[in-house]
Specification:
With 157 residues, the protein is an alpha+beta fold. Helices cover 31% and strands 31% of the residues. The protein has one domain: PAS domain (Beta-Lactamase, 2-Layer Sandwich).
């Protein structure tokens, strides 16, 4: 289902490890409890959490979404991973989103975030209890930002 190469990072397993290790280092607890020999990419694909990430481009592009993220945003892998992450928010929400992501960049992570997002079809939803964190490898290189959240609520017009 997923491309073997995550833009600029390497294999999906390597990206999954970057997601999980960055979370653990910054937040001080694991995002998922894995057995020592467990495949991180498969665990992220099977988790109940919505997990996604974007790269470090000036206009960051989504580079990972687990099956729950793809379903929520109503996109294929190819569509999702070619979408600028700013387009996951409505135009009126984008400035607040950008300020929030700058806060994450500075602090390293923010937890218990809530916000309104929009699927490809235009369906709006409210994400709840999200943690957003910087993706930083063991050498201190920054690879982007990621988000994970357990809950969302569709909004009615």
């Amino acid at each position: 289902m997923f491309l073997e190469e995550i833009r600029g990072i390497g294999t999906r397993e390597r990206h999954a490890r970057l997601l999980l290790d960055s979370y653990d280092r910054l937040i001080g607890k694991p995002l998922l409890s894995l057995a020592p020999d467990q495949n991180a990419a498969e665990a992220l694909e099977r988790t109940h959490l919505v997990v996604l990430s974007h790269d470090t481009a000036p206009d960051p592009v989504l580079n990972y979404g687990n099956p729950r993220a793809l379903e929520l945003w109503e996109m294929s892998w190819e569509s999702f991973t070619s979408t600028p992450s700013r387009l996951t928010a409505e135009p009126l929400e984008r400035e607040a989103r950008e300020q929030f992501l700058q806060q994450v960049h500075t602090r390293g992570f923010v937890d218990d975030y809530t916000g309104i997002r929009i699927a490809k079809s235009g369906r709006r939803f409210y994400i709840q209890q999200a943690t957003v964190w910087n993706l930083i490898d063991e050498q201190g290189r920054r690879w982007g930002q990621a988000a994970a959240f357990p809950e969302y609520t569709y909004l009615t017009e």
